[in-house]
């Protein structure tokens, strides 16, 4: 299994327009952060986690040729507003692309992208999507996919666990707390990825300290934090996190 971080930033992205802070003006390429999205290649199966506004640029940067299915985490703009960029991929597929989301996220997707329930006008094209509600573990193209409920403000938030060939990857890119049942599902994964917005506390996101404590409880073989805002540089996050936990960065690839 190969995990590629297409984007690791928060909702503004970094650099943030109009900002002259040290991180937004940083020469370190690891401080250039698209909005969060993750590509998972498991055997011949390619899965995408979330569709941020930067999706088209991310797909071009990484020369992504196919997407077999999409795992949505929640309905905030920085995670869904690139949804229509799935269209060129769906146009090349014999059947509609499967997309899985929580009930609340699925409802929002149907409201914003209302073509999901309408046929295209003759001579035009729309993203051909088969939208599923994810409530329990299921199998898809040789992968075991498990939704991971978490708390993230008012969002109907789920992370995801992907298992294939004896390897497991868990990611919850936005969260403030993780219920005990979800924590148990995450334990001892080969790779665990968790929200860590900044140094100071936030009402709906974990900060670095909270994320590190939770990742220590999960006990994955490798642990990464994601979704950093412009208040913390990559180098600073590296120095603040305990041994065994690192910040992800755009373009990072992990082989499991």
* Overall mean confidence score, pLDDT: 97
User: Which ranges are low-confidence, i.e. pLDDT below 50, for 5 or more consecutive residues?
Assistant: none
Assign the CATH superfamily.
Answer: Ribonuclease Z/Hydroxyacylglutathione hydrolase-like
| Helical residue percent band | 10-25%
- Count of folded domains: 1
Short structural description:
The chain has 256 residues and is an alpha/beta fold. Helix content is 20%, strand content 27%. The chain has one domain (2-255): Ribonuclease Z/Hydroxyacylglutathione hydrolase-like (Metallo-beta-lactamase, Chain A), CATH 3.60.15.10.
Describe the protein.
The protein has seven helices and 14 strands. The protein has 256 residues and is an alpha/beta fold. The chain has one domain: Ribonuclease Z/Hydroxyacylglutathione hydrolase-like (Metallo-beta-lactamase, Chain A, 4-Layer Sandwich), CATH 3.60.15.10. The strands form two sheets. The chain has a seven-stranded mixed sheet. A seven-stranded mixed sheet has the order 7-8-9-10-11-12-13. Strand 9 and strand 10 form a beta hairpin. It is globular. It starts with a strand and ends with a strand. 46% of the residues are buried. The mean pLDDT is 97.
């Amino acid at each position: 299994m190969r995990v590629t971080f297409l984007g690791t930033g928060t909702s503004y992205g970094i650099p943030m327009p109009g900002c002259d802070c040290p991180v937004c003006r940083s020469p370190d390429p690891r401080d250039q952060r698209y909005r969060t999205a993750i590509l998972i290649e498991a055997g011949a199966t390619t899965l995408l986690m979330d569709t941020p506004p930067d999706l088209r640029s991310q797909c071009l940067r990484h020369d992504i040729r196919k997407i077999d299915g999409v795992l949505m985490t929640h309905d905030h703009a920085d995670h869904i507003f690139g949804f229509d960029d799935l269209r060129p991929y769906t146009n090349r597929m014999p059947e509609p692309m499967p997309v899985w989301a929580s009930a609340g996220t699925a409802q929002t997707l149907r409201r914003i992208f209302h073509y999901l329930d309408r046929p295209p006008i003759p001579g035009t094209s729309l993203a051909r999507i088969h939208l599923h509600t994810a409530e329990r573990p299921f199998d898809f193209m040789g992968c075991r996919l498990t939704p991971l409920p978490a708390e993230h403000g008012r969002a109907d938030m789920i992370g995801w666990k992907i298992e294939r060939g004896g390897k497991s990857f868990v990611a919850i890119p936005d969260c403030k707390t993780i219920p005990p049942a979800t924590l148990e599902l995450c334990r001892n994964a080969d790779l665990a990825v968790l929200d860590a917005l900044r140094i100071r506390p936030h009402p709906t996101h974990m900060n670095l300290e909270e994320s590190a404590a939770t990742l220590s409880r999960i006990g994955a073989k490798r642990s990464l934090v994601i979704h950093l805002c412009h208040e913390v540089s990559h180098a600073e996050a590296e120095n603040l996190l305990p041994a065994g936990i690192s910040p992800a960065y755009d373009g990072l690839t992990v082989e499991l």
